[in-house]
Amino acid sequence: MLLASLFVALAGSIVFAILFRHADSWLRQRAIQLLQEKFHSDVDLREFHVRVFPDIRVEGSGLQLRHEGRTDVPPLISIDSFQAHMSIAALWAKKPWRVDHINLTRLVIQVPRARPGQAPQWVTKREISILVDELTAADCQLILLPKAENKDPIVFDIHHLDMHSVGLHHAASFHAQLTNAVPPGEIDTKGSFGPWNPDDPGQTPLAADYTFSHADLGVFKGIAGILSSTGRFGGVLEEIEVEGRTSTPDFQVDVGGHRVALDTVFSATVDGTNGNTILHPVKAHFLHTYLVANGGVVKTPGMNGRAVVLDVKIQSGRLEDLLRLAVKADQPPLTGTIDLHTKFDLPPGKRDISEKLKLKGTFHVNKGAFTNPEVSAKIASLSRKALGQPQEENAGSAISSLNGNFLLDKGLATFDHLTFSVPGASIQLDGTYVLEQETLDFHGKLRMQAKLSQTTTGVKSFLLKPVDPFFRKNGQTEVPIKVTGTRDHPQFGLELRRKQK
């Protein structure tokens, strides 16, 4: 028994002496073999050092893995430096070998587009099974390279990453913290990543929950507010499904200057092959109005950045809510129920949003009412005259309907076939409204049930009777009109010269 114990001690001393002398080259070779087989990559390792007593510690730098030996794309994985720690006893324990901790500095993962044709076959010489209890990394990047060479990659900057139970044959749990670039804000996410797909890294699965806080929308010229969001994402690296909620309690469009609480519920697909984000759909709520938007954030040919292209619908919304975003006055000039359908096109660039936003669509306002008593009185008077009852106070109404086609481009709103109607009268206008200066320039026709002589009383009525026939058409009185001035001080008038022409 004593002899056996002596032999074991002697043999152990010899093994440790051999390990200590040859640990660097032996473990370096095993590490490169493992990385080659599991990531199907050529491996370049600049420095590698091992200490084997009282436990095993590994340090290295300059690690690069080129997937399938490709040089037409950046390295799949790059690591500036790394440190690993495991106990000596783990070498004699049952597989997998357990590594207590690995720390990485400046980890960059660049998921490449698939190589055309059949991928080369990688042969595993011998299975080396390793499980890492904890992996930490600082200053990391996950970059999804698009299929087309002229497309921009998707870049996720991660300033801290913590993973547990990291193995190549199962998913690992992770906790990551990153700063979003635009809009700037902090993202905290927890979930699972893997198992790694060595044949097609873009098909590696992931799933996680996230929180996004203190995102400053002020970086987008023309709007303001602090956004927060919660949700989850999952799928594979090449195609990530995202769903969540956002809340911006102080959302503001600068041209209007009023702050409102804006909440959204959304789902989207992030296409890692081209960098586009497809929204399906976004449901937004502010004040008493709800809208639904479908579309995407897509690359614009010939331009840097991505455009937001949406199809937006509002049903039974409140006109005063929309005007509160776009009009500077404390009180919106008009209230009512609105149905709206518009194409929303926001190209990339650093210009103010009001200068580059393009809207094109149609709208219908029901039960519209002017908030300015003076304007409301004029509309009611128009209605009474159009009915042929100019002195009947109970006749007519200031409640109206409003319909039209519109195009908003570079801060100029152009209206086509804008129709405005009250009991007894309808107005059709074409013209423009400048958002910043709030100036009006509209021209069109006023149609009334009554004859011109019926719109007034006394001598005026008598004098107008001879001209009634000149303005009657299809049983209605039709006169050319114009609306100019500003939103606060509109000017209404006849355009008889245009009638003569």
Could you name the key traits of this structure?
rod-shaped; 501 residues; 25 strands; 25-stranded mixed beta sheet; alpha+beta
Compose a concise summary of this entry.
With 501 residues, the protein is α+β, with helices and mostly antiparallel strands. The protein has helices spanning 2-39, 319-326, 353-356, 373-386, 458-464, 468-471, 496-500, and strands spanning 41-51, 56-67, 77-86, 97-111, 130-144, 154-166, 172-180, 185-193, 205-216, 223-224, 226-236, 239-253, 259-271, 277-286, 289-299, 306-318, 334-346, 358-370, 400-409, 412-422, 425-434, 439-448, 472-473, 476-486, 490-494. Residues 1-18 have low confidence and may be disordered.
Radius of gyration: 35 Å
Task: List the quaternary state of the chains.
Answer: single chain
Q: Note the beta-strand portion.
A: over 45%
- Biggest beta sheet summary: 25 strands, mixed
- Shape type: rod-shaped
Low-pLDDT parts are 1-18
Q: What's the tally of helices?
A: 7
Structural class category: alpha+beta
Helix amount: 10-25%
> How many E strands?
25
Mean pLDDT: 83
What is the straight-line distance between the termini? 125 Å
Folded structure, characterized:
The chain has seven helices and 25 strands. It is of the alpha+beta class. It has a 25-stranded mixed beta sheet that branches. The protein starts with a helix and ends with a helix. The model is unreliable at 1-18 (pLDDT under 50).
